[in-house]
Design brief:
By secondary structure, the protein is mostly helical. It contains five helices and no strands. The relative contact order is 0.10. The model has no long low-confidence stretch (mean pLDDT 84).
């Protein structure tokens, strides 16, 4: 890269870095969402709320369905991404 090209690209470097950071954060959030430990923690939280009477049986069942649906959707999304499978 010569000096002239560098000078023209210099104003765009912060934008480029921001886009790379946003991509990295998005990938990490998707990876965490698809993590079985995260799902387990959410289900345990719902179980504790049900045991303490904070939510009803119907609400707990709906929450479990929503968590499993989100988990399945996240797993389908990560299975299609070859970079994530290389872990």
């Amino acid at each position: 890269m010569n000096l002239l090209t560098f000078l023209f690209r210099l104003p765009l470097l912060p934008v480029r870095s921001f886009v790379q950071l946003a991509t990295l954060i998005t990938e990490e959030a998707e990876r965490e969402r698809a993590d079985p430990a995260t799902i387990r923690r959410e289900l345990e939280h719902a179980e504790r709320a049900l045991a303490s009477g904070d939510i009803s049986d119907e609400q707990a069942a709906e929450f479990q369905r929503a968590v499993f649906a989100e988990f399945a959707r996240a797993r389908r999304g990560t299975a299609a991404d070859p970079a994530v499978r290389a872990d």
